[in-house]
Amino acid sequence: MRATVGDQLVQHGRVVGQHDQVSEVVEVMGTEGNPPYRVRFPDGHEAVMAPGPDCEIRHRSQEPQAQ
Fold it and tell me: Fewer CB atoms near the end CB (10 Å): N or C, the chain?
């Protein structure tokens, strides 16, 4: 898993009814884009995350285009 600043980290809900959590990568703390990442959530709080198998990176170029 590799990310750059500005990418989104999506943590998928693991149980029925639990929504995905989407955060923005604000710092890549590993080498060559590898974890851990400092992320910022929509409510403004930040955390350091080492994503597991329930996570994916959405690169800025992968975001859906508004029409």
Answer: C
